[in-house]
Amino acid sequence: MEPNQIDTYLKTLSLHRMREIYQQEAENAANTKLSYQDYLLRLLEQQVLSKIDRSINRKVQLAAFPQLKRLEEFDFSYQPKINEQLIRELASLDFLKTAKNILFIGPPGVGKTHLAISLGIKATQARKSVLFFTAEQLTQVLASAEVSGRLNKTLEDLTRVDLLIIDELGYLSLTKQTAKLFFQLVSKRYEKGAIIITSNKPFEQWGEIFADDVVASAILDRLLHHSYPFLINGKSFRMKNISKSN
Ligand code: ADP
Ligand code: MG
Questions:
Q1: Do 82 and 106 fall within a single domain?
Q2: 3-state class of 85 per DSSP?
């Protein structure tokens, strides 16, 4: 198709951001061997981002979400164990004011990260500051802050942010030392700021994550005291189309 015809269609549909970038992105996609779907995804993501006003856009970028996932895209019928009503209430963000935590626990593919990101995006839309880390990234941030003598400052920064999201706790075990840093962070935010955590490990196995049962239960105590735990044990969404074709 001629580029100018694409231009015309995108203009008709008011997809202005896509119109600005699709040619450059097509070149990039060709150079980096991006799949057709990933190219389309990039265009759509940029279009979605441009729709959100600029200050929110900035908050989304600062949050460093690995992907943009919306609550509106979440298919609750696929995961009936999740209390949809409660998630929708949480999306009104009262849990930020009351500094309550949300825990999504369950096997891979059940939508833990999706839900965490979509609540994070709701928070940015309310102009709240959000930081998204994998547990591994956060551990590295804390460990290197300690080495360079900036631990207190880093803990303060991480306490000041309105919503902290820690994804994939439990894929890697922490050392005793990093478990302690993690404990310090959770203690500092306790009753001050909300945390969303996702984990593939049930609470009984958190002792393994933190290399220490005592530290693990001290962390769990604080996280769970004011919290909404979601134990999700449904099917992996990644298997959705596979099981359909069988
Ligand atoms: P987890 O973090 O639990 O391993 P993800 O949240 O990464 O799972 O979900 C895996 C993929 O499936 C993501 O692309 C996510 O957007 C999608 N997904 C998972 N559950 C649902 C759902 N119920 N409705 C729509 N998409 C879903
Ligand atoms: Mg995940």
A1: yes
A2: helix
